[in-house]
Amino acid sequence: MALKLYNTLSNEVETFLPLDQEAARREGRPARVTFYSCGPTVYDFAHVGNFRSFLAADTLRRWLESPLCEGGHVVKQVMNITDVGHMVDDADAGGEDKMEEARRRLLEQKKSGKLPAGAEGTLDPTDPFAIADFYARAFLEDAGLMGLRVVADAEKSPELMPRPTRYIAPMLEMVEALLEKGHAYTGSDGVVYFDTQSFPDYGRLSGNTLDMIRSGAGGRVSESTQSVKRHPADFMLWKPDPRHLMRWDPEKVLGRATALREGYPGWHLECSAMARALLGPMIDLHSGGEDNIFPHHECEIAQSRCAHGTPIFARHWFHPRFLMVEGSKMSKSKGNFYTVGDLVKKGFDPSAIRLELVKTHYRSNANFTEQGLKDSGRMVERWRAVAEAHAGTAGAGAAECAEAARGDEAAASAAERFARALNDDLNVAEAIAVVNQWIRGVREPREVDSMTMRLFDGVLGVLERRGGGAASAGGEDEARIEELVRRRAVARETKNWTEADKIRKELDALGVVVTDSAGGPTWSRRASL
């Protein structure tokens, strides 16, 4: 059964066919898939809502690579880390760059002594490049905890997680091409804008029309910026600005004369240029949160197709929906704004966090709750008990696990239903139901059961996240807890109940729960949002 996936561009569920499909069939090899994922803008910490989108894309990639998905594909995924040019108002060249906003915010925090943890004494809040590095490191740490495969890829090939500040030359060349072909113009403010009226398909992805955008222009752009544009939908490609700290001299970058002036790129331009440089002028998949559909992805399509003269930019567009937290939109003022690191410090295992973020269908709004995290944690432990029942299966590859599953009636049936669910528009919720139904029939796990669970987890990606909560706390904090647990055990053995009770209260204050058993005490962190 082929993968059927909803395509935002056509507004329909379609059979996913890579551009390489026919060549792969002729040559008898897995099809190659090019996949561009919009990543974070590193002006602040990424929150769990951001990670819902990133993890949905990661799950899709894992499914494409699984041997259960028509024999597997070879996926080349690129995820950008935006470090310049993302305007606070995406459409307004007169607005503020988010990196500039971060610089202003951090300067205020430094004055009040409230810099983020890890920034005090190490981060220069006047330097937007240093700010980008600080938040990029924080993102990569959280993304590693969540098991994004593109992060592991980038450890060997850093270009797979590109930063716009390192791709200025391809952006400038793209702006020149658009100007030369009549798809861009320079406004009286010196900004180079894309001419949306030169591209008849503008609005196809989002369902907007140029007339609709014109009627709503007042809410999207400032009057001063609008006055220099040919149309309200026209968007910034390159902006000269001598005050901006992150700016480039085009002649120095290109090593030749050019009409472009010193400045910086627009956010929409960056992804198009990096996708072209790393994946080619036409790609198979493009993902991002639903808030990226307009204007960001709409603008990417327009400038990419016009610059390269191609009939498509991305064949398939994948947009997960928003995440709610305890039924409400995330907000720092409401106290329900969480990063992955926040949740790990509160005692939640990364495996449970990942499962909680992927277990709802990507085209449904998900509600992230404390109870859901606890339920996901228990589910992970049941799966882990089966996967780790036979230590010798730990090194088995996906193909070997798939072959083992095919040789067992119960496992083969579960694998077939698992594949059917994921081929149905990546229905992870149904796939998880299949796993749980199958696992209820596993009384004493056999080797084939361990391999089958590992096969399923190759797609779901949760068991490899082992070691969150207590194990991720690490360092002196964990060592202190271990010592307190040891001392309490000694006090109990010597019947020094006063000392044992005192230590128990100290552990309780640290948010640690101790469980006594015949095999000795174990501990875990008390997890709560």
What does this 3D model show about the protein?
The protein is an alpha/beta fold and 529 residues long. The protein has 21 helices and 14 strands. The strands form 5 sheets. It has a 4-stranded parallel β-sheet, sandwiched between helices. α11 links the parallel β9 (283-287) and β10 (314-318). α10 (267-279) packs across α11 (293-308). The longest helix has 19 residues, at 128-146. It starts with a strand and ends with a strand. Mean pLDDT is 92; it is low at 467-475.
Structural class: alpha/beta
Instruction: Please state roughly what percent of the residues sit in beta strands, choosing from under 5%, 5-15%, 15-25%, 25-35%, 35-45% or over 45%.
Output: 5-15%
Q: Name the helicity range.
A: 40-55%
How far apart the termini lie comes to 41 Å
The count of strands amounts to: 14
Number of helices: 21
Strand order of the largest sheet: 4-3-9-10
Q: Biggest β-sheet, characterized?
A: 4 strands, parallel
What Rg, in angstroms, do the CA atoms define?
26 Å
Shape: globular
Q: What average pLDDT do the residues reach?
A: 92
State the low-pLDDT regions, or none.
467-475
Write the layout of secondary structure elements.
Elements: E1 4-7, E2 12-15, H1 21-27, E3 32-37, H2 48-65, E4 74-79, H3 98-111, H4 128-146, H5 149-156, H6 168-180, E5 184-186, E6 192-194, H7 210-215, H8 223-226, E7 235-240, H9 250-254, E8 263-265, H10 267-279, E9 283-287, H11 293-308, E10 314-318, E11 323-325, H12 340-345, H13 350-358, E12 366-368, H14 370-387, H15 398-406, H16 409-423, H17 428-440, H18 447-460, H19 470-473, H20 475-493, H21 497-509, E13 512-515, E14 522-525
Helix pairs in contact: 6-10, 6-11, 10-11, 13-14, 14-18, 15-18, 16-17, 20-21
